[in-house]
Amino acid sequence: MRRWNGWGDDQFSLDLPEQGGDFLSARIGGGTALPDAALDHVCAQVPESRLPVDPLVTDLIDKSPEVRVRHARGQSLADWLALRSGDIGLFPDGVALPQTNTDVRALLQYARDHDVHLIPYGGGTSVAGHINPVEQGKPVLTVSLAQMKRLLDIDRQSQIATFGAGTPGPLVESQLRAHGYTLGHFPQSFELSTIGGWVASRSSGQQSLRYGRIEQLFAGGRIETLQGTLDIPTIPASSAGPDIREMILGSEGRLGLITEVNVRISKLPEQESFHVVFFPDWEQARTAARKLVQNRVALSMLRLSNPIETETQLALAGHPRLIGLLERFLSLRGADTGKCMMTFGVTGSKAQCRATLAEARKLCGRYQGVYTGTRLGAKWAEKRFTMPYLREALWQMGYAVDTLETATDWDNVDNLMGKMESCLRNGLADKNESTHVFTHLSHFYGQGCSIYTTYVFRVADNYQETLVRWQHLKNTTSEVIVRNRGTISHQHGVGKDHAPFLSVEKGQLGMQAITALTQSFDPSGLLNPKTLLD
Amino acid sequence: MRRWNGWGDDQFSLDLPEQGGDFLSARIGGGTALPDAALDHVCAQVPESRLPVDPLVTDLIDKSPEVRVRHARGQSLADWLALRSGDIGLFPDGVALPQTNTDVRALLQYARDHDVHLIPYGGGTSVAGHINPVEQGKPVLTVSLAQMKRLLDIDRQSQIATFGAGTPGPLVESQLRAHGYTLGHFPQSFELSTIGGWVASRSSGQQSLRYGRIEQLFAGGRIETLQGTLDIPTIPASSAGPDIREMILGSEGRLGLITEVNVRISKLPEQESFHVVFFPDWEQARTAARKLVQNRVALSMLRLSNPIETETQLALAGHPRLIGLLERFLSLRGADTGKCMMTFGVTGSKAQCRATLAEARKLCGRYQGVYTGTRLGAKWAEKRFTMPYLREALWQMGYAVDTLETATDWDNVDNLMGKMESCLRNGLADKNESTHVFTHLSHFYGQGCSIYTTYVFRVADNYQETLVRWQHLKNTTSEVIVRNRGTISHQHGVGKDHAPFLSVEKGQLGMQAITALTQSFDPSGLLNPKTLLD
């Protein structure tokens, strides 16, 4: 069953190898776990629902405490601390589970008639507070699209598939695979996040280099709004005015509820493999990565770890003997202290894969890259969606882990990465605490790339202080990001957590434009208030 | 000097080979040219300017009749008929030529202070009425960005270049070429159209398969609006809410005046070549084209002519002996009556070109494609920007030529192309006139492609009737397009001519969203009224 107070399925866990614990302990000290609250204890705190009764929607709404608890929070570290402490504060007044567009329209009618706030809910995987209720003196109804999870149509000639918006990643892929197709959208949250959530939050998957971000995959769909139904037809490309798709992408539930999504699909590739190359230092590694994408080497995936992430990954991998052998092999070839690990994917027809791999290896060689084959790449592929489970293992050891991510132009990558890491690394110095910080670049464009920074710190001896520490790290580093030409989010979205930082990159007029859109669709502000625009 | 009443430079002309005239005459009858009005005759009709005097902008504005005539119309067939007949109707009350952002802000201030309508003007190449004044009882000032035509900055690492918005195609490419870069945006209007116009109208270039449409190339920029300056920062990709870039793209001057454009540039390729393959029939040809793009064969350009376009192009090419030899060669290999010509481009490093060409030839062979090498492809490349001059040659022979274009999903391409061609072919039957109609597909996506249909008809014995005939063909076929899942424009934009057809694809709520945006930026409707939204 799904874990109510953390990530994923409670029957699955990932252990940190012993060496991993030692590695962290040596860097930031040993941890002491905080006590977890029990589900029934939390359920007992859930107040009576304020939702007005209306026969129109009675059958659609579940007001039971456990369901309300399970839909109260996402997966940000603040959410995590709230859930583990049991101090959740606010709960939705009920959870609706519509099955059809008619149901969704009835819920919108209900919201309008009774002045109820609606929160659209996909997989509940937000790490930016998208689905958290806020107190505004009105009843809050969370609308889960979980029942709308079917492949509704597939057009093989046009390679367009239509899904119910609540379809989670594995069901998207398995339903397509049965027909010989793939969407190719693989965010780390793939196990739980949904196709509608990807659109609403402008998601990006690990193989965006081949398949594109969700912006490129989203071909059209249906959005139920307070003003009626918005149908966006599938058209390959158009110069007919501003693109309505692009207004829905990233709208985070403020314009309406996405109920159906048309996506551009691809035939399952003939071949796919993931390869690992080590570079002697960051300068060579980063330059090689930039050249790979600027020279249009047709990789399907690219990820580059900086020296500390490389060291951390090797330490946390387990198998110390094998890793030792690998490190000796690399050292003899010039990749020693300071080395950086690059993982790349090659996908397509046999001929395409052969040509691309040859081109990639040749280019990496020019920057002293040491090619190590597909063994580590296969490991990466195997674990690509289970990494969030590591948070649970770390939590049990008294460590909190979180990530901050952005994207910026190539000329600014080192500057911004350096400032983010340094802000996080020194952020708890006045508490005499250290933070372990490392980064990879994982989405590449001719113009620049994403920067994905992970930080681990010890929990304090109480929840309140742990939250204060996290908020300090999060807020100061978010400020560093937007003041240094980074977007407040490359792939997680805005939600409530990033909303205060949005105006720096959008500008006053950009904010005004987004506000004009939300007011046009939702003049009373009933949909997901305080998300996107605070 | 630029032709005041037609396309391009008046020192350059393109002749139709004799066989071309015979070919058309056999199909739609011989033409008789209509008399052209003289420039001084038209200038004499220009009324006194209604622009209020304001020292803030006096030096920026030219009110001379000739300049006003030269900025009164674009390049649609209706514009062409107006210019050739001399019956132009409306003229702007003046033309401003700002040099700086400060100048543009002064012009916006002037518009606000004196209730003057502004029309942003790039290269004046619109074929949809973007820059034509409309009578609304207010003075109209056309703002030409022609003086803002410099490369302002180039960031080699991030491959971003910044241009003044009025920079025309050849100056974009020549200024980049000096640094070893290309933008790769080559619309047929390249000679005259500008980088700001490309953004404002969501333009697409002939090599969009490699370089992307302007949506992919536009990285950010500066837009001067009535509410202040909107600066869009360059960020490679972001999930931070709706994308402001996508609101400016296709805004057609309704939100503000684009003054600076940041674009994503590429290193000049090592190699480039264009190849021609003939297929025995449309079914094989269209399937091969679809497979090329769905299989991600990395072509830089792809164009597929249907049988009538293929026949027409060969007839109009001149060199009947050589063409005869080619046709015998093709006929022996199965491509005879009904054959279709495909042109494709291969661009990149030597290794990439070699691999892509091999892949493309192999795939074409599977559909009975007969490869003929690069000779015809080189001809295409040589003439790619001069085709609009052919309109002049046809005009002198008494023929009017125009195009209609759209895009749709693969499953609908034949249906829509057939209906468009048939509507045009039979459109003048009740006048006992024939229309020569042919089509190519020229922009390819996994999901579908563009459909670009050309039609030639004889001018009537007066301008008025010629315009009536054109309007009938244009309007009935535009209706066919939007009622059959096509966009009203894949690459020409909306302007005033397509505005009545826009709501079918955007829907009532989509129109409301665009209106909300324009009202937010321009509540009094001073900017380019009746364009985009009628």
Give structural notes:
The structure is a homodimer of 534-residue chains. Chain A has helices at residues 18-28, 39-45, 65-70, 77-85, 101-114, 169-177, 195-200, 208-211, 214-217, 245-248, 282-294, 307-316, 320-332, 350-366, 375-383, 390-396, 413-425, 463-483, 502-521, and strands spanning 61-62, 94-96, 117-121, 140-144, 151-155, 160-164, 181-182, 218-225, 228-232, 257-264, 266-267, 271-279, 301-305, 340-348, 370-371, 399-409, 435-441, 448-458. Chain A contains 19 helices and 18 strands. The mean pLDDT of chain A is 97. In chain A, strand 8 (218-225) and strand 9 form a beta hairpin. Chain A has 534 residues and is an alpha+beta fold. The first copy, chain A, has a seven-stranded antiparallel sheet with strand order 15-12-14-13-17-18-16, with helices on both faces. A five-stranded antiparallel sheet of chain A has the order 5-6-10-8-9. Chain A has a four-stranded mixed sheet with strand order 1-2-4-3, with helices on one face. Chain A is globular. Chain A is 37% helix and 19% strand. Chain A has a domain at 271-384: Alpha-Beta Plaits.
